Amino acid sequence: MTAPQDTDSSPTADHGGRDAQLATGAAHPGRVRPLTLVALFLVAVVGGGGLFVSGFALGRLAGSTPGTAASQEELFRPFWDAYNDVTTNYVGTIDQHALVEGAINGIFQALGDPFSFYMTEEQYQASLSGISGEFEGVGIELALQDTQGQSCDSISDTCQLVITKVIRGAPAVTAGLLAGDIILEVDGKSLTGMTLDTVVPLIRGPQHTTVTLTIERNGARMNIPVVRDVVQREDVTSEVLAGGRVGYIKIADFSAAAASDFHDQLQQLVDTDHVLGLVLDLRDDPGGYVDAAQKVASEFVDTTPLYWEEAANQPPQAIAPIPGGIATNPALPVAVLVNGGTASASEIVSGALQGNHRAALVGQQTYGKGTIQEFKQLPGSGGYRLSVRKWLTPNQTWINGVGLTPDIVVAPAASGQAGDPQLDRAIEVVLAPEAAPASSPAVSSWLLPAAA
User: Fold this and answer.
1) Which residues on adjacent β-strands are paired with residue 117?
2) N or C: which end of the chain has fewer CB within 10 A?
3) What is the pLDDT of residue 40?
4) How many CB atoms lie within 10 A of CB 399?
5) Which has more confidence, 326 or 67?
6) Could you tell me if 142 and 199 are in contact, meaning their C-beta atoms sit under 8 angstroms apart?
7) CA 264, CA 273: separation in Å to the nearest integer?
8) Is the pLDDT of residue 80 over 80?
9) 10 Å Cβ neighbour count for 91?
């Protein structure tokens, strides 16, 4: 039994540091359903301490507590000999639960796969709690900034706690909080000397509880009570560029609501704004729900396969697009921005558009995450994540450890350099694909005008 495929991103997860600035709330516990004897499929990347997630699905474990098979008794005899000797003769205090967890952990360490590992009960629940992209809080993003707008470490007279973004539809919007507001106190408590890590727990809290933020706005001081609620992280943003000719849409994570939000914003750009081209920004997108990736790719591609999935000892299976995509017309040019932080679900989308000749990839080599993991709960002993499938590009290339090569390689802006040369180049591509230099080996031939 398999449920729709989806993804994760927790407001408290590292994710390369981006979400460390979120003070929107604790992960919503009401969204974590009991997972006894269930499994979750997901594509994930661990890098720099952050969890890069690219999708999961629910399923059932095959069994509960099978014994050692007769054919494997000799194989497991050393394990049981060691376990029995420890529990019988060890002179110190024994925590048998810790022994079991340690043994399970050792199984996954022995695989040598950085994407397969054991998690304690607390770690497992914490991982699941952020998967939906929903959490309880007020719905703001925060940063510590000095008077010049530069990052700083702790709150002081010269280092301020600033609201950098108010998530649409969040309680903070209803309360009247604005980007640029400076938070001075939380529930009457001074924040001087605190860091983001110590302030965030003060602002987070359960649904229907109230927190009062003392803010400064345009020199005026005011107290604003905010009733905490369930907040959906805002992972899709869009705008119109190039004088109304180009629609720009960015996905930060493929969370539970990302595909639906993407559909709505893409429809606005195509059907209402009537843009002439689209730029999809997947730079530094660590991934998310696999089914969200399928839905997003299907907005642009109506031919099979979008990508392939290959289970152990099974032939690859083609994943088809979902009918009804908004931007499948090839007359609407598309460019996809990618870089080394483009991983997992975002690579599935990038590979689907590139491999089906629907978009040019602009930027730098992607991360290269080509396996799908399965989350399974071990009742009373946490859970684990195990690599169980590969995903392949439309031409059945496995990009694991390699990544996708852009059609047009463009370096990011140098330190201190203004502007975004990668975005500028992507806009050039969608506005004038015939201007792409025919001599450049990095440019796909489909970008060039047909020769008569």
Assistant:
1) 385
2) C
3) 43
4) 22
5) 326
6) yes
7) 13
8) yes
9) 5
Q: Find out whether 299 and 324 touch, Cβ atoms under 8 Å.
A: no
Instruction: State which amino acid sits at residue 316.
Output: P
CA distances from 113 to 13, 107, 116, 377, 397 (A): 21, 11, 5, 19, 20
pTM above 0.85?
no
**Strand locations in 192-245 (E):** 210-217, 220-227, 229-232, 236-241
Two domains, one topology: 134-232 and 236-368+388-446: no
Residue 321 contacts residue 303 (beta carbons within 8 Å): yes
pLDDT band at 95 (very low <50, low <70, confident <90, very high): very high
**290-298 and 258-267 are packed helices; what angle lies between their axes, rounded to 10 degrees?**
10
Question: What are the residue boundaries of the structural domains of the chain, listed by start?
Answer: 134-232, 236-368+388-446
Rounded Cα distance between 59 and 298, Å, is 24
Find the angle CA(381)-CA(84)-CA(119) to the nearest 5 degrees.
Answer: 20
pLDDT tens-place string over residues 400-437: 999 999 999 999 999 888 899 999 999 999 998 543 43
Task: Tell me the two tokens of residue 304.
Answer: 């099979």
Provide the sign of the torsion angle of the four alpha carbons 242, 329, 352, 287, taken in this order: positive
Element (H, E) at 267: helix 258-267
Joined together, the tokens standing for residue 423 give 């975005």
Tell me the CATH architecture of domain 236-368+388-446: Alpha-Beta Complex (3.90)
**Which superfamily does 134-232 belong to?**
PDZ domain (2.30.42.10)
